[in-house]
């Protein structure tokens, strides 16, 4: 026997697949289904205040089960595992994940499938509980109210601008000019303001002589305290 044959035989013998019984497969997939349903309800509860996608939530459970089945298949045969790695390497996902939390849940679902497929159900259960606890605790951390954007179109007059600033100061706790655009027809000014009553602020600004229009916009985002 040549050295190449001995090396090949030793390599295949060292990485030979495991004999996985039907009972082990059923138990692994059943545990994966239970934990994936748990992820389903956690995602549904977390996204109750935002845009909820039922199709994406269902896909989380399906991905966990599919991943567990792939891991079970890889353990059964080295040849099948190499072929599956090659087949999966040509798959490209082009769907953009809009929310960072959706990406976190997707990785959570995939990791659960890997853990359950590898027989590490204890790690899967404990990690799921830890992740849920972390999400709940971080959810209670308060965030500050984001400033609002005030857009004003007015005449090119110093008196109008002074009256405008007076109206803003009387109805806002904080104001700052973000941009100023002066044209022959008028001046467009964008303010960053903090106010408790944006309706009163908009009315006060619209009542200033020389102001053509005013708009109060909600800032898209969150700020820390």
Order of strands in the sheet with most strands: 2-3-1-4
Q: What structural category characterises the helix and strand content?
A: alpha+beta
- Global geometry: elongated
Global Rg: 30 Å
Termini separation: 73 Å
SSE order, as H and E? Answer: HHHHHHEHEEHE
**Which range best describes the helical content: under 10%, 10-25%, 25-40%, 40-55%, 55-70% or over 70%?**
55-70%
Q: Quick check: average pLDDT?
A: 79
Total strands: 4
Describe the largest sheet: 4 strands, antiparallel
Low-confidence stretches: none
Strand content: 5-15%
Q: What count of structural domains? A: 2
List the total number of helices. Answer: 8
Could you write a compact summary of the structure shown?
The chain is of the alpha+beta class and 225 residues long. Helix content is 58%, strand content 14%.
Helices and strands in order:
Blueprint: H1 3-14, H2 22-46, H3 54-76, H4 78-88, H5 100-117, H6 121-139, E1 148-154, H7 158-171, E2 174-182, E3 187-194, H8 198-206, E4 211-218
Antiparallel strand pairs: 1-3, 1-4, 2-3
Helix pairs in contact: 2-3, 2-5, 2-6, 3-4, 3-5, 5-6, 7-8
